[in-house]
Design goal:
This protein has 119 residues and is an all-alpha fold. The protein contains 4 helices and no strands. The protein is elongated, with a radius of gyration of 19 Å.
Length: 119
C-alpha cells in the first residue's frame, strides 16, 4: 500500500516557508515608501525635514522595527531555502529543519538590537 502523503501545512518547515513568503511581501509593500523618502531627499531639505519629523512618530518607529525584523527573517529563511535547493542532501531527515529556530532567533535578536537603538 503506498505511503500517504503528509499535508504540507503539517510539515515542520511550513512556518519557515510562510515566514519567508510573508516577510517578502511586507518588504515589497515597503519599497515604494522607501523610494518616496529618497525622492523627498532629492526635492530639497525642507521636504526631507518634514518627512523626518513624520518618521519620529512612535507608530513609524514600530513599523521600522517590524521592517528590520522581517528583513532579517527574510534573509535567514532565504539562505535556508537556497541551501535546500542548491546543496545535495543525502538523507531525508537531516539537520536542515534545525536551521529554522536559529533563523528566527537571529531575526528577533536584530529586531531587539534595532529597537534598542531607535528608542
Amino acid at each position: 500500500m503506498p505511503e500517504l502523503m503528509q499535508p504540507l501545512r503539517n510539515h515542520e518547515s511550513y512556518l519557515a516557508f510562510l515566514g519567508h513568503r510573508l516577510s517578502g511581501l511586507a518588504l515589497a509593500v515597503f519599497l515604494p515608501f522607501h523610494f518616496l523618502a529618497l525622492g523627498l531627499a532629492l526635492e530639497g531639505a525642507e521636504r526631507l525635514d518634514a518627512f523626518l519629523v513624520f518618521a519620529e512618530l512612535p507608530l513609524v518607529k514600530v513599523a521600522e522595527w517590524g521592517l528590520v525584523t522581517l528583513l532579517t527573517l527574510h534573509l535567514c529563511f532565504g539562505l535556508r531555502l537556497l541551501a535546500l535547493e542548491l546543496l545535495v542532501w543525502p538523507y531525508r531527515n537531516d539537520p536542515r529543519l534545525r536551521w529554522i529556530f536559529p533563523g528566527t532567533a537571529a531575526a528577533i535578536a536584530v529586531g531587539v538590537a534595532f529597537y534598542a537603538q531607535v528608542w
